[in-house]
């Protein structure tokens, strides 16, 4: 029987590690009780953002989608409303990041990107929740406080991302395609 | 590297602030909680928010009508009139709906959240 | 660049404050007056007029309503009860011009409804116990109803001539219960128009006439006959009266059966087969009489509607199913979570 060897590139390792980190955070955040459904610090998003800034768009998309998929499998919420909300949030957040990226990387820093991602995330989740699950106008009463939370956590995550990247800068910038994991 | 605060960050933060402020105005302010107007003998007696559950007595021309308030709705619990039509009316919960004890001259009027109806055909 | 933007940032709170102020909905210039007359709550809403101009008209309307209440009361001492007493004695009774015009209009609607709207029904209403502030508790003896039916008084038994009235049927007893509200609402609207007020609702216990609009069309909810809340809504256009007759308005239960106040003059018992019937028509008096007549007509309502010149009708049956005339279907919007089963019934 011929043995097929799967060759992995460094990029795949990177995605796997980052996704593992994001999944761990995702599961932890799910375990933390929240006063308002949907209110989370969004640290898992932070991983996506760092992946984008450090390694580029492709890595970020993989990390984000893997997090949602595997995270839901671990939590047993695959294909449940929770999963769909998670996916909607991730996709909207990626869309916002893509838009932010398109504006130009010299003009928009991690803080702005983080904010865009956070606001996109909650908006996407809300639209889906309203369209599919709770088409009741009362749902929108929850939107302003969640948007506020997204604003605060978006800024905090942006600051963390800045600090983290400055740290990486000091150690040495990983270059896309050449960086290797040890 | 992409670190540091950029011009666009301020712009995004500013727009985000405006968005959050707007969301409160849009989703909270335009829809104040429903309230109940209590009229006694042709005059406005009280305007009460329909937020929490409680009961209270309203003094009419015959005696006290007991009314119950609950989130978003209200009803007559007891009335000194004979027919008890006001009590039979049951809960009223839509802006423009009315429950009334005419002998006692006490009427309850739900003031709608955004006043969906200008009047209710009964 | 960054420093400049940082400077600009101080402007943000100002910008937000301006936006918040701009979004603040201005208080709509709505004037409302509320009083009790004709055994119900009268609610008048006016749009786009200042209080000083509205006050004298509203006061006049309130006086009108109170006067009609005293003139037309079906069982308390009123001009109408005096007229009834004289008529039942077989005597010629003087009728004031205003009342004569109303009786003529009622007679016309009685004819066009094929007798289903019957103001001569007062004796039967009293027999059922609906002439009183309290609800009756028992069904009248079948013999008593049969006796009334044997001599069944009709509006045609009333002779109106030269300011006098005379009845050829001693059982004739006028009851304007299905009509007075409509007439009073029409008079109120006339008064408002005379005063140059073109945007208003005159609402007499849920039956109403709306003219003009507010910043949007007037929006009227129609009560669900079997559940709390609103079944459907209509946005009025121009000048329209919306009247509903329902079996839930005044009723009592005896031996598990509901007996309501809309009595069929053909058999003497509450009309069956309809829970509520709503009509739209320009004149409130016509709408009022038609709502009653079509309720009594039961399954045959499309014919009665055509005879009375009513195009917009909604009938809710006791099982919750809905029948609509085609012209009504264009206007109505259901507000329940689950849309009821709807049948269109064309008018002949």
What does this structure look like?
Chain C: It catalyses: L-threonyl-[protein] + FAD = FMN-L-threonyl-[protein] + AMP + H(+). The complex is a heterotrimer of chains A (182), B (122) and C (348). Chain A is mostly helical. Chain A has a single domain, classed as Orthogonal Bundle (Arp2/3 complex 21 kDa subunit ARPC3), CATH 1.10.1760. Helices cover 71% and strands 0% of the residues of chain A. Chain A is built from 6 helices and no strands. Chain A has helices spanning 10-31, 43-55, 57-75, 81-102, 110-133, 143-171. Chain A starts with 9 loop residues before the first helix and ends in an 11-residue tail after the last helix. The relative contact order of chain A is 0.14. Residues 175-182 of chain A have low confidence and may be disordered. By secondary structure, chain B is of the alpha+beta class. Chain B has 2 helices and 8 strands, in the order H-E-E-E-E-E-H-E-E-E. In chain B, the strands form 2 sheets. Chain B has a 4-stranded antiparallel sheet with strand order 2-1-7-6. Chain B is rod-shaped, with a radius of gyration of 22 Å. The mean pLDDT of chain B is 82. In chain C, the strands form 4 sheets. Chain C has a 9-stranded mixed sheet. A 3-stranded antiparallel sheet of chain C has the order 3-5-4. In chain C, strand 11 (251-254) and strand 12 (257-260) form a beta hairpin. Classes of the chains: A mainly alpha (182), B alpha+beta (122), C alpha+beta (348). Chain A binds chain B through residues 53, 100, 103-112, 115-116, 119, 140-141, 143-144, 147-148, 151, 154-155, 158, 162, 165-166, 168-169, 173, and chain B through 1-9, 11-13, 16-17, 19-20, 23-24, 27-28, 31.
Q: Please report the distance between the alpha carbons of the first and last residues of chain A.
A: 33 Å
Tell me which CATH architecture of chain A applies here: Orthogonal Bundle
- Strands side by side in the biggest sheet of chain C: 1-2-6-7-10-13-14-15-17
Rg from alpha-carbon coordinates of chain A: 17 Å
Q: Report low-confidence residues of chain C grouped into runs of 5 or more.
A: 1-27
Helix content of chain C: 25-40%
Oligomeric state of shown chains: heterotrimer
Count of individual beta strands of chain A: 0
Protein name (chain B): NusG domain II-containing protein
Keywords (chain B): Membrane, Transmembrane, Transmembrane helix
InterPro entries (chain B): NusG_2_sf
Catalytic activity (chain C): L-threonyl-[protein] + FAD = FMN-L-threonyl-[protein] + AMP + H(+)
